[in-house]
Amino acid sequence: MIKPNVKTIIIVAAICLTGTSSVLALSSKNIELSKPTITSNAVKPEEHNSQNYNNNPKPLYTANKNIDSSSLISKANILKKLESNQIKTKNSFIKSVKLETWSEHVLENNKENTVVNLLIDPERMVWVILTSYPDGITTKAGFYSNAILTSVYDAQTGDLLESTVTGENINRRFLNK
């Protein structure tokens, strides 16, 4: 039997989880109407704060132009590293090996490229090695005839920073004519 100050209510609740599924629950309960309770478990999202982002980060490879040359990788050691990482053909040969700053390399070899690499300080020392492939080289972008491979290694860590192939791309797979 139902008491006079309590009413029977049928409750329909819908719960939506991650926007992909919903569960419906039907129940009958005796609820006292005089004491409504409202609870909220909602989580407020964090407010965007632009001070959390560094819009001018320090380069990962900082300037090292003025450090002692004994702290840099020697020419002989960088050539050993190149041998282990680079494809050789019977006619390929090393055309030049230069120790220079990143900015000098960019000015000499990337004249068409206007993209600035913010990870590398312009005064960072790098080894720039040009390897000639007179018979061509096959890359992921296709076959390049009479190719030049430019490999740029960090002079202090030996990390490969850049590898670029120039020459005539024979298969131009991704270009429409």
User: Which structural class matches the secondary elements?
Assistant: mainly beta
Quaternary structure annotation:
single chain
Distance between the termini: 86 Å
Name the overall outline: extended
- The number of helical runs is 2
Proportion of beta-strand residues: 35-45%
Number of strands: 7
**Mean model confidence by pLDDT:** 78
Biggest sheet record = 5 strands, antiparallel
Order of helices and strands: EEHEHEEEE
Helix content: 10-25%
Low-confidence stretches: 8-28
Radius of gyration: 33 Å
Protein model, in words:
The chain is mainly β and 177 residues long. Helices cover 11% and strands 38% of the residues. It has 2 helices and 7 strands, in the order ββαβαββββ. The strands form 2 sheets. Strands 3, 4, 5, 6 and 7 form a 5-stranded antiparallel β-sheet that branches. The protein is extended, with a radius of gyration of 33 Å. The model is unreliable at 8-28 (pLDDT under 50).
